[in-house]
Records
---
Amino acid sequence: MVVRIVIAGESQCKAFAEICLVADHLSKKLPDFRYERIEKPVLEWNAWMYKINQKNKWHHSGSPLVWKELLATGSKPFYIGGGPEFLDYCYSYYKFDVFMAPARYENLVLNYRQYNKKIKQESKFHIDVEFEMEENTVKNTFSVCISGSGNPITMHLISELLEMSSSEKGIYKVYIYDHRCSSSFMELVERECSFIETNYAAKVVKYVDKIGLALTNTDVLIILDHVPFSPEQSIGGWLYENKKIMHNIAQMINASASSKMKIILPNLGPACYNATVLSESLTHICKNNIVIATSDLGMEVTPIIAKIAEIPMRNMFCPPVWGFVGVNHLVDINNSIHKYNEFYPFNRYKKVKNSSLCIGSLTPQMRTIEYLIFFDESLWIKVAEEKTKSLDSACLNKSIAILDLLKSWLVDENPEEIITLGVHCDGSFGLDFDGYFSQPCRLNNGKWRPFKNYMLPKTPHMTLSYLLRMAKFTMTLEKNDLPRIIPRKICICKRKQYVKKNVWY
């Protein structure tokens, strides 16, 4: 049987370039010597090597990594080692000895990369090794990491994620992490979840005390960490505290996560502000891989609007949400889509009574709900009153928004589906803002992008330009800007009475 040598390493590793040169020389001199080369960027190397070690039960560290395998389907890889072990292997099998002088091969890394690039351009088809093919194929299983899992939303998320783990295409691992919670509590959550039946023999929910270990093997990161607003705090101070949290998370992502990892932020705290700060701090993750689930704001008002318009809730879609969510936003009620059936009678309907034949046809139609609520001047007052009665459903709505986004992004991709999300602005709708802004989006080649053909908001009380100005203004705030308002009693001696007055400190 023919044996293939597989050499993997970092793109900037000199030892990797040296042994690839040795392998290339042997392949030209020995007709039976075959080798494959896997080159990984420096930022992706540790995560990739972790997966290989897990798969083959190895304990290799550093670059390069060398193994051999038979050129047959299902052959088991045989571990050789690093660079020195590969040179020992070459000497023991082929009596080949080599001395690599450092000065002579100083620019070997750059030259070998240029040579490899030329080979790729000249060849019409480039054949990757088996592990590269596995990464490029459509994944059926995904791992999720929840940071800040002490939040009550986690209970709803884990419940639905475990249900998704029972399907053929779903979640196989859920990492939970929260530095503010005790390890005993998190281990209790892990133990309770282990009793739920899934398709996997190992535990699906796993508690980690260091998030870096989980990020190396994570496909989707859900960030629940945030600082809630307090009336005792200034606006600038509140934003500053959230900024510190995002910077700390960005450091851990830069050190451990894959460049293909997706990041989801729910509508917690200054969500769009946090996403903007996080994206500016990340070094190797695309801005389109960071998304804020903002549709929960539309879910809050959907049953209220259905009640006011006197239509079944199943016949209307969630209204779009615009704005710098977490600071200010607009739920565009007027542009909510109403789905109904339009009746077209046949001629016999007018002529014959009590006919047993079909009297007409029903045609599905869709239009904005504006025609049902346009003349209701007290609409927003009614919405505000009803919202105060349904605060208990906030956590559930936020978790549903995250899970719907996960399913649309990973499990059941539908490029025709339009969802309200906080995404990085690309100039659509006239939003010239270098940050994240909630708007209608559609999935395009695995990336959520603004759907520029969607209707602009029609609400006269708040314009899109105002929301945009507020987003830009918020990003300029410093720590001590916009201090809190403190009610204070000021004595007016002449009238001998106290007058309450708001004073800025």
Note: DSSP finds 16 helices and 19 strands in the chain.
---
Amino acid sequence: MSVRRALHAGSWYTDSGAELSKQLDYWLNQAELSHGPARAIIAPHAGYQYCGACGGHAYRQISPIVVRRIFILGPSHHVRLSGCALSSAQKYKTPLYDLHIDSQVNSELEMTGQFEWMDLDTDENEHSIEMHLPYIAKVMENFKNQLTIVPILVGSLSPEREACYGRILSSYLADPKNLFVISSDFCHWGHRFRYTYYDRSYGNIYQSIEGLDHVGMGIIENLNPTEFTTYLKKFGNTICGRHPIGILLQAIQELLRNDSSQNASLKFLKYAQSSQCRNMNDSSVSYASAALVID
């Protein structure tokens, strides 16, 4: 059996199961259940010291009683992909307990001819999916024997490819037993990220970053994939999970086209920055958490 190790445990987050469980409990208890039960969430994937608290606001919206399968869409940071890739592992380790890959859904997705497979090295080196596994394990701990996961590594997609994957995944999004976790940080600002957009009308640099992020968040809340693509082209905002977000927006549109009786509501619940930039030598990463409710 192929097993993916938790390579970022002990650095990006603690490798002590007891300590991790306590941290996650604390962050979940700090958050309010205000927009659930979530069919999808958007949450960050940085080290927990930076974004663990922010992520709790998204994970708090999940109803573990309902969910039986979790799709995790994370952007590829290290390998070039023009499409999406599935995990070839059967099991993902976490400091809490092991999560099992849904081989049936992997086979169904492979049959579409639109997915490739990532090798174990790529899988283990990528943090955008791994950083969600402890939260998933924590939230689902009372139902761990009934849970499977479907990790999907997302490459640099054209809007047409985002729409293609949205169509494929929309039938899974339609099932309340499925939850989609969309892995994304927001603006990466500073010379080290080669992005220094600054609109002085907002005031300080960190206020400009927040303003820019909130424009994008508003467009995502409007569930408009075309407008989101236009926003990214106009401002170049360094939202690393823009393609997973694009797939989600396309999947929602497809679902609503196929069933006009459904209502979809996506709300951002928390926004944070790793630090407040005040001069051009500073840098920061923004984090945001959101939940999608479909009824």
Note: The longest helix spans residues 205-221.
---
Amino acid sequence: MPPNGDYLDIAFKRAAEKKTHVSFPQLVYPSLRDDGLRDPVQWLTGKAMDDGAEGLWRVHDGLYDLQSFLDIHPGGAEWLELTKGTDITEAFECHHLNPAVIKVLDKYYVRKAQTPRNSPFTFKDDGFYRSLKRAVWEELQKLPKRIHERSDRIIDGLFICFIATSALSCISKDYWIVMASYLVASLSLAWTTVAAHNYIHRKTNWRMYLFNLSMWSYRDFRVSHALSHHLYPNTLLDLEISGFEPFVFWLPLKNLFYGIFAIFIELASFGFLFPINFFKRLMLNFLRKDFFFNHYRWHDILGFLVPVWMWVVSGSSFYDAFIMWLWILCTGSFIFFNIGTNAAHHHPVLFRDGDEVDEITRDWGLHEVEAVMDRRDINNSFFKVMTFFGHHTLHHLFPTLDHAVLEHMYPILIEHCEKYKAKFRVTTQFDMVVQQIKLTTIKSPKLLEINK
């Protein structure tokens, strides 16, 4: 509830002047949020401007120099390379479940930060998230070590299906076989990309590279999704919200006159977002100094190997193989983004603003639970979990855990939600589709409710 009747007017005025959040008026409006191409590198740059990390890595109120730790970081050097100069508190807390990791971090302590954290989220020892994390860590020790192989079999099967049907779409001369192969290849590409998301959150592994078959960079996705959306869902720091603006607004906005057209904009653009992300990244080579050397890697060419594979195997002309690949790519893009935007977040009740009772901070885990809507008709099948972003609440709370592990954590989650009065919500996939459309037409925020 707002502390006084003028709260919303003041908050909207500050937001319009880009001086603060609407949700958390004590915080700085994210630097560079509305500038340029709204790409992941720009998001990291803006975050570094606001985080007070002084070119180091910030965790809570401490500054750490992890440069010498990069090459021995169990999760891979890339996570630390990307986040240097920023506040990584939320990432540190949810990516590391083993309590022993704090002793490793302490070895690299430099000094105390000079400015308060520009984040509303807390991680108190007796709070919801840390209590839940301790219980999940204990439960993990009881699970089989090879439980993740269920996930591996699904993504491997999808990848093989995509490779086979993409080639068959060029090999066959029968119209119906070509059309069926094209549609199955498109669906397999979309599902492989979704399933690869399970691996992008974790330490470096070969399956995360399958994401790049979509011509989208998994490295960029680690920023826009794992470091932005996952840590700050449904807030101004969520790049998967700001990245669609000014065409689609999911955050409530006054005087939004074209919200009713958002669904048509989505349907018209989703089929082109895979190639658009590729070309947007390509443009940055001409707009940013040394962008290619700093942000391009060998795996960025993986998507181009698909039309080459189709051409070589089929014996058709490269032009024909390339055109078929474009059809598969764009159809796969349409499927992927329809799955993504209707997955778990774009529901009116999940976007809430205002202060939490008398506090201006809140437990990070409580925010994650209340920013997600799980779907019972997705969670009832592990294949659908892997291909439709299932077990989404637990995935947000513990992104580095394999999806095959998450289903074993529900009793612990429910117990802690009841204890801390967290609003764990479940609905259906159809309801998420309908509510996502409604969300784009909302002009005024809903206030956070008092937790009693």
Note: The chain has a mean pLDDT of 86.
